[in-house]
Design goal:
The protein is of the alpha+beta class and 608 residues long. The protein has 15 helices and 29 strands. Strands 8-9-10-11-14-17-19-18 form an eight-stranded mixed beta sheet, with helices on both faces. Strand 5 (60-64) and strand 6 form a beta hairpin. The longest helix is centred in the middle third of the chain and has 21 residues, at 291-311. The chain is globular.
């Protein structure tokens, strides 16, 4: 842990600590100095601590040696914040029992890695007010030391989803109570709410189940260390568009609804400002002053006018394009105006104290706030295949060398025939996963092809050297992994799916990094292309999905993410997955297929 010291102002550069007393002091000013927090205290001393020390102006503190405590006025208690918070867990990540520590940032190295990870959060800063990032660290040699972070900040006052959930009475013995969550209650008690403002997991580790331990860690920190405005946190809140596509929160978080956004008033606001700007007085006719928000609105209005004139569009047409058909905007207009249109976002809230958690669950039940995710459960359909068989015929090379080989090993002839030993019958239950295993040349690919032929009324012609046999008692749509056009972007394969659905399926297949979806497929790695093929096939809503060489191109972490996502998708979307692999020992421990078909050359197959 880095040393935290208290200095007189004149001695800051010499870094000579003065003797500290244990009396209560007030923080008169907080600022950042050399990647440390510097607190100016009411006794004219300065305290230097770690960059994201959870403390601010007007907080009452007590310093004794290297110890630092802050007084929570509402709860009448002191919280030790000198020692950085941390929580260690053992997680199963990619088949590896991984030791992960969730903690506050302590070292320069952790701070540097946190800043690198922030580049994967494309919305930039996490907002104003207090901010404490909780990082996750590990020590595996093939992983970065910091594998993600979840950033906690003070809450915003206005949130329509929160207002709806908090509309019922709340009371606790510490003197906190409201009858309804009106503007007065919101201003008075918004400091009870800690907000998750940013959440990033290293792109190569997404889809492995790290998100829920992160949200658990955030709740733990918020309940034990977070404070703001003289109050400890009672609630933890997250509002984020990504929750439409990647629902990752644990059961303690309750769906509160959607924020209001501004789509309903963009046209009205812009109509007023644009009309003013187009008057004879020009842009000076727009209301002046109003701070940063009004400055931004005036800038949006002028950009809107430029676009209208360049595109020959009316204001109404330009707003329609922005909200419902943004591809019609030229690149400059899109980059300048996209922030003008704020869509509603899903909001989830959890209690971090027993009374707050009970209140949130009770209010969520009263509001009947259904989560925005719903999938059809699998049908009770079983496909029974019979008379499965494959016969192959191969011509024998008749050159001098070929005939010498024939003579030496005793298989003289014009061709070779073989019956591949496959199970003659096989049952596939919808929503389940069947794993076909066996060494190279055992017939795994041929069994997949026999299954595909069994389902097809007009099967693709097989080579004349291969004859497939098989029947099935019920018809269904069968998909295999598609070939990819490398000039396209993954999102070009959205088909008839909604964007929400496509992103959720892609995320479950290990493609939760949004920038990958809008880049040419040629720029993706071979493992990313493989995951995309599985996502596209799942998006086509097959009854049976056949996958050859399952997960063989993937590293252990990507493989774990794909297996976890595919099992979930098979169950939720109701399709049967039949996957073939020669590396079954890598998969069985965490794939847990409902059925395993083992093929062996020279021996009868087994089904378990």
């Amino acid at each position: 842990m880095e040393k935290q010291e208290c200095f007189s102002k004149q001695n800051r550069r010499e870094r000579r600590p003065r003797l500290n007393e244990s009396q209560s002091l007030t923080v008169s000013k907080r600022k950042i100095w050399n990647d440390k927090v510097l607190l100016e205290l009411s006794n004219n001393q300065e305290f230097i601590g770690r960059r994201y020390l959870p403390i601010g102006k007007n907080d009452e503190v007590k310093i004794q040696g290297e110890g630092l405590s802050v007084f929570i006025r509402q709860d009448k208690q002191w919280i030790d914040i000198a020692n950085p918070w941390k929580k260690s867990e053992q997680l199963d990540l990619g088949g590896v029992n991984l030791s992960v520590t969730f903690k506050e940032i302590e070292t320069d190295s952790e701070l540097a890695q946190f800043r690198e990870l922030r580049k994967f959060h494309y919305r930039g800063a996490g907002g104003a007010g207090r901010s404490v990032p909780i990082i996750a660290t590990t020590n595996l040699p093939d992983l970065p030391n910091v594998i993600g972070f979840i950033e906690l900040t003070s809450s915003m006052i206005a949130n329509t989803a929160r207002k709806r959930l908090f509309a019922g009475p709340y009371r606790e013995k510490q003197g906190i109570s409201w009858h309804e969550w009106d503007s007065e209650s919101s201003r008075k008690y918004c400091s009870l709410i800690c907000r998750i403002s940013r959440f990033v997991i290293h792109p190569e580790l997404r889809g492995l189940g790290l998100a829920r331990p992160f949200s658990d860690a955030a709740r733990s920190f918020a309940g034990s260390k977070w404070h703001y405005g003289g109050r400890r946190a009672r609630f933890l809140e997250i509002t984020a568009e990504m929750l439409r596509y990647y629902p990752f929160l644990n059961g303690e978080f309750q769906y509160a609804g959607e924020t209001e956004g501004n789509q309903h008033r963009v046209k009205k606001d812009m109509n007023y400002l644009v009309k003013k700007a187009l008057s004879p007085q020009g842009k000076t006719a727009m209301p002046q002053g109003g701070g940063g928000i009004m400055t931004l609105q005036r800038s949006y209005a002028m950009t809107m006018i430029d676009h209208m004139q360049a595109a020959g569009a009316s204001l109404e047409e330009a707003i329609e394009q922005l909200q419902y058909d943004p591809s019609q905007l030229d690149q400059d207009a899109w980059e300048a105006l996209y922030k003008l249109n704020r869509r509603p976002k899903p909001c989830y809230i959890a209690g971090v104290t027993p009374s707050a958690a009970k209140y949130v669950k009770k209010r969520a039940l009263a509001c009947r706030s259904d989560t925005p995710y719903s999938h059809m459960r699998s049908k009770d359909q079983v496909y029974n295949l019979s008379n499965i068989g494959v016969k192959t015929t191969s011509n024998i090379l008749q050159t001098n060398e070929g005939r010498l080989i024939q003579d030496a090993f005793g298989f003289v002839g014009s061709h070779l025939e073989s019956d591949v030993q496959l199970p003659s019958t096989l049952s596939l239950r919808q929503g389940n996963l069947t794993l076909i295993c066996g060494g190279s040349g055992s017939g795994k690919s041929l069994l997949l092809e026999a299954i595909r032929h069994s389902f097809s009324d007009n099967p693709v012609a097989a080579p004349s050297s291969v004859v497939f046999g098989g029947e099935v008692d019920a018809k269904g749509l069968v998909e295999t992994l598609p070939n990819l056009d490398f000039s396209k972007a993954p999102l070009d394969y959205i088909g008839k799916n909604t964007l929400d659905c496509f992103l959720e399926i892609a995320g479950r297949c290990g493609l939760a990094e949004p920038q990958l979806l809008v880049r040419p497929i040629s720029s993706l790695s071979s493992g990313q292309r493989y995951r995309l093929q599985i996502a596209i096939a799942a998006c086509r809503r097959p009854d049976v999905l056949l996958i050859d060489n399952f997960c063989e191109p993937l590293d252990r972490f990507s493989m774990r993410a794909v297996c976890k996502g595919l099992k979930s998708l098979s169950n939720n979307l109701g399709f049967t997955t039949v996957a073939a692999t020669a590396a079954h020992e890598r998969l069985e421990d965490f794939l847990h297929p409902q059925q395993i078909v083992m093929l062996r050359r020279g021996a009868q197959p087994t089904i378990s």
